[in-house]
UniProtKB/TrEMBL annotation:
Substrate binds at residues 158-162, 217-221, 257, 264-270, 335-336, 442. This is UDP-glucose 6-dehydrogenase. The gene is UGD1. GO terms for molecular function: NAD binding; UDP-glucose 6-dehydrogenase activity. It holds the Pfam family UDPG_MGDP_dh_N. Residues 329-447 form the UDP-glucose/GDP-mannose dehydrogenase C-terminal domain. It comes from Dissophora globulifera. The lineage of its organism: Eukaryota, Fungi, Fungi incertae sedis, Mucoromycota, Mortierellomycotina. GO terms for biological process: glycosaminoglycan biosynthetic process.
Length: 464
């Protein structure tokens, strides 16, 4: 029986390790975290993260070959392979603040492994990390290990997207495994290949050197985010010229060299990865004395900030240049549909701006809790405090409740339940102030139909 330990029971560690347990019944998987509340939630009927299909996977294997625990040391001692899936947020202070990844959690976890391990281990870097982090991990492990114990390091970055995590893990486009190009490195790599090829076709499990694997993860996210910033930059041109961004995206996407995915204009990308990973790449480029390369990638983030502000300014401008005391219904707070995650969500920027303009924001999201929304809006740097939030934000239980009496409704997250065939937009129109405005930040609504009802409609990337 192979024993796997995963350190970090978050959005990456939880689902990715649970799927290994689901696919390999003879592999024991223990997911550990220092956060007792998180582990308690993983052991309850109410899992700490919302992800379609996750409940089925966890409930099928929990207590059999899938375990959640706070006993980090025991899980390390028992494991043959250890995934390190801890958080690597952007540094808030010190050298590289605002850009570099904070590797303190990785280092703490690595030191713990070195301290408590009594047998040799394969240590797998799963968290997204700057290029050459594996080297630091290896140095720490080797400097602290007891005689006779070997540590082999692998890089196995995770490409799952939230909202489709289980599908992505069951049928990934590819799995990357990087290793040191030594006989021991190859042997360690093979152990992980043997696990993944139990359910993933061999040709989709790609092996390479450690540094390529680490950089590939940053590169893939940077390229994806760059596509969104590109289409969002075009959306500004569309609004100014009368071109339609959906038509432009379709025309470009049908070129097989470009492809149709990730060309949906939006209020701006969010999520825990895109901005963080690009800033990481920018920092790396600066460290390598490549200022032009740094500036190139930085522009992707600058464009995203611009898109968020452009949309909020459009709302204020359209509402006769003032939103003071107006009720604005915001539909959606998560950074994308099918997740309760709000990290870097465009909704936070949008909402805090509207609060600063003294609007009354009525918010509804099907999966984000009131507590989370309040936490996000009162984070340092967001620009709003608890008193502002108490005074200006109402968290509602349905889209209808949020829209009742509103001057405008704004689609911020593309939840299916906000689509034309899911909500009664005539009922919403009747309950709103007149003129009633709709701002579609996700291109999910049928503007001509809404206009027939009587709405005034403003859509990203369209002038009519
Ligand atoms: C991303 C990568 O897709 C994934 O491979 C990596 O492992 C982690 O980062 P995630 O952030 O979970 O995944 O979601 P993703 O679907 O990539 O969306 C990110 C943001 O871009 C969301 O805010 C989404 O709404 C936005 N987006 C996506 C667009 O605005 N337009 C698009 O066409 C696609
Ligand atoms: P991600 O989206 O990358 O999965 P999360 O923040 O959701 O990031 O999860 C990371 C988890 O790692 C958190 O639950 C955190 O408590 C846990 N963690 C961080 N450092 C350690 C550590 N040294 N030992 C165990 N768990 C840790």
């Amino acid at each position: 029986m192979v024993n796997i330990c995963c350190i970090g029971a978050g959005y990456v560690g939880g689902p990715s390790s649970a799927v290994i347990a689901y696919q390999c019944h003879d592999v024991n998987v223990t997911i550990v975290d220092l956060n007792q509340a998180r582990i308690d939630a993983w052991n309850s009927d109410n899992l700490p993260i919302y992800e379609p299909g996750l409940d089925e996977v966890v409930f099928a294997r929990r207590g059999k070959n899938l375990f959640f625990s706070t006993d980090v040391d025991q899980a390390i001692i028992d494991a043959d392979l250890i995934f390190v899936s801890v958080n690597t947020p952007t540094k808030k202070s010190g050298m590289g603040a605002g850009m570099a990844a904070d590797l303190a959690y990785i280092e703490t976890a690595t030191r713990r492994i070195a301290q408590v391990a009594t047998t040799s281990k394969v240590v797998i870097e799963k968290s997204t990390v700057p290029c050459r982090t594996a080297e630091s991990m290896r140095t720490i492990l080797e400097a602290n290990s007891t005689k006779g114990i070997r540590f082999d390091i692998l890089s196995n970055p995770e490409f799952l997207a939230e909202g489709t995590a289980i599908k992505d893990l069951q049928k990934p486009d590819r799995v990357l495994i990087g290793c040191l190009q030594t006989p021991e490195g190859f042997a360690a790599q093979q152990k992980l290949v043997d696990i993944y090829t139990r359910w993933i076709p061999k040709e989709r499990v790609i092996t390479m050197n450690l540094w390529s694997s680490e950089l590939s993860k940053l590169a893939a996210n940077a390229l994806l985010a760059q596509r969104i910033s590109s289409i969002n930059a075009l959306s500004a041109i569309c609004e100014a010229t009368g071109a339609d961004v959906d038509e432009v995206a379709y025309a470009c996407g049908t070129d097989s060299r470009i492809g149709p995915k990730f060309l949906k204009a939006s209020v701006g990308f969010g999520g825990s990865c895109f901005q963080k990973d690009i800033l990481n790449l920018v920092y790396l480029s600066e460290q390598l004395y490549l200022p032009e390369v740094a500036a190139y990638w930085k522009a992707v983030v600058t464009m995203n900030e611009y898109q968020k502000m452009r949309f909020t300014h459009r709302i204020v401008r359209t509402l006769f240049n003032t939103v003071t005391h107006k009720r604005i219904a915001m539909l959606g707070f998560a950074f994308k549909k099918d997740t309760g995650d709000t990290r870097e969500s465009a909704a936070i920027t949008l909402c805090s701006y509207l609060i600063q303009e003294r609007a009354h924001v009525a918010l509804y999201d099907p999966k984000v809790s009131a507590k989370q929304i309040k936490m996000d809006l009162t984070e340092p740097g967001v620009g709003t405090n608890e008193a502002d939030v108490d005074k200006h934000v109402q968290i509602c239980n349905s889209a209808y409740e949020a829209c009742a009496g509103a001057d405008a409704l704004v689609i911020v997250t593309e939840w299916d339940e906000f689509k034309m065939n899911q909500l009664d937009y005539k009922r919403i129109f009747d309950s709103m102030q007149k003129p009633a405005f709709v701002f579609d930040g996700r291109l999910i609504l049928d503007a001509p139909k809404l206009r027939e009802i009587g709405f005034r409609v403003e859509t990203i990337g369209k002038s009519v």
